# Entry
Amino acid sequence: MLAADAGCAEAVQALLEAGAPWHAQDAEGHTAGEYASGSGRRAVVQQLLDWAVRAELLLGTISRRERKGSIPNRDYLSSCIKYEGDVLLDAEQEGVMMQWEEPLMKRHAEIICASGGDVLNVGFGMGIIDGFIGQHKTHSHTIIEAHADVYAHACKLGWDQRPGVRLVLGRWQDVIAELGPFDGIFFDTYGEYYEDMHDFHEKLPKLLRPGGVYSFFNGLAPDNFFFHLVYGEIARRELSRLGLETSYEPVPMDALAKEVWEGVQNRYWHLPVYFVPTCVMQEQQVADGGAAAADEAAVAGEAAAGDSQQLEQQEQQPAASS
Ligand SMILES: C[S@@+](CC[C@H](N)C(=O)[O-])C[C@H]1O[C@@H](n2cnc3c(N)ncnc32)[C@H](O)[C@@H]1O
# Structure
């Protein structure tokens, strides 16, 4: 952290190569990346970001091999949920979805409905984004929901009867092969990990028409700005390999007040800015996800090039520490 704060790229490199973890945190939870950023060491921020992304891409490849077939949110999917005012809670009182996300859902809906074609939303939750999608003129609107009680709630609200809407009960993993293609897709599940979203991304070359737009709830590593940047960059690179061009639009967030989280066990958002992803499927796309998966090791080892757009944005934020 001292080397990063001082902008000493050689010392940072030597430490990383000697095994110093890029994600080590000090007593206050700050990382070397935040120290470098806080003292304006742009080159070192990029160096740490590149190292972190390569390391995490490799680890992701390994962990996917190890966990094949397991269902991370099996307990959640078979337990009770409750709609309490402006929150959807699971059996552990953890927030599945909260009303403060409404402006974000509005923006996600605008992005995926821009072409007005066939639109898919994965994860109904409180149906906030579906309400916004319904305000756009789309050709069709498909919703996938895995939890039986959430599905029942959606039916109670009449979503199964709406003209142009198809409400599908099941995990996306089990039903996606029968659906598509689409012009706009939004992905926001609960109790799954980045690796599950990675698996969903692998389906995009077949699911999304050329020129189609994909977006996802960008809650990746939401308790540390540098971790959040790293995962945003990982997603951007993985999507690029699959033929999608990603940009992130910063939206100031107002969900930090204590009252927002009263009665909710898991505070799942900690940052002052939310980066809305817009990922556009290019005309020239990778033939299929399988071929793309075979490239994974190469991607993990590839030398990083260019600054990420998120990095630009981060430098406009006040330093997390100094
Ligand atoms: C955060 S909520 C979605 C909120 C939604 N975007 C809204 O605007 O209200 C996540 C939803 O994904 C559902 N879900 C979890 N795993 C899923 C899976 N594998 N396939 C489909 N839905 C899933 C959960 O039951 C939950 O309803």
